[in-house]
Amino acid sequence: MRGRGALLGIAGFWLASRAAMLWMLVNDFFSSNVVRVEITATYHNWYNVLVTWTMPHNDIMWQYPPAAAAIFLSPDLLPFLTYFQAFVALTVLCDAVVLLGLMRVARRSDGSMAGAVLWLVTLPMLMATPFARYDVQVTLLAVASLLCLRHRPKLGGVIAGIGAMVKVWPLLTLLGTPRGKSTREALVAAALSCVALLAVFAALFRDTLGFLGNQGDRGVQVESLGGSALMAARLVHLWPGKINFQYGAFEYVGPYVSSIARASLALTVIGFLLLLLWRVKANRWSPATPFDAALCAIMVFTVTSRVISPQYMIWLLGLAAVCLTSRHTTQRPIAWLLVVATALTSLIFPVWYGSDILTNSTLGTILLCARNGLLLYATVWSGVRLWKATVLPKDSLAAQSA
Questions:
Q1: Which of 379, 182, 396 has the alpha carbon at shortest distance from 290?
Q2: What is the pTM of this model?
Q3: Are 131 and 30 spatial neighbours (Cβ–Cβ below 8 Å)?
Q4: What does the domain layout of the chain look like in residue ranges?
């Protein structure tokens, strides 16, 4: 009965919280067109091009791998609804599937319901944003890949490959797979699924790889780590730049912006090299190591990116939830830091985005610097905890074996 009561409580909270998110999505007081515009304008415009079997590569906002087209065409599955209604309905369905997957894996002998609770409770903290972006769908692919890797590495690899062809980053879920047969199987399956999907979309659509030319010219987005540094400098009149809307985001333009963009790319490369070094040095795996490594990797690439959009928090929450499904995770304190960062993110966007973030007010600057500083701290701490748990001195490892 206690189990049935818990399930009823989860179901009731999910229904109530998601209904509130949907209400905020359609209510102008909570969700202005700034939130809905991605679906009503951007995605719908891409849909109108995609139905002609052409990728919208002429739109500089199209910066996604070819399989993303399937997400933007998916509202056709519900032809009795408008494009907006169908897209949101499918996003809510994906949210429910993520929750069910987290609950199912919690039933393992070393499982925990903490992951499901984290996803259930913290996603609504982002208000309507999760249902107005396609990142819940991408997060579902990453979560599914991780949850399959333990017992079905080939399937996990296939799903990671599909995710890579939708938004690249889910491929990093394979970083922490244990050395040996399972890793080889997962990597081969991911590679084959990537190649197969690329071939299918290249056969069906024109200009399949046109997105590659639209990504390299991105600047420094206001909400990025580098952007918060410029924001602080601008507040105290140490930097004379301004904000422009370009490449589908509000970005800084002015002196030193290109240098900060290059520094961000350099930090991403350094982060990738450190992750590879961890992979080489790691000599102790627990059932949670693939989960922990995936979260750490995505945090590294998020924090060092020239862009930190509010929907990126959906990725981090999804991976943190997967970590918390295992009692062996090293990332429990990191997950709770991400909860705080999520709360700050909702204040940044959409609550005070136009009034304080884009106007570079003192409140907006403090909020953004606090959120990004917290993410940076959590990323470093995540890496340190992962390293300490998995890279053991040879004498310690030998003593444990004995």
A1: 182
A2: 0.94
A3: no
A4: 2-401
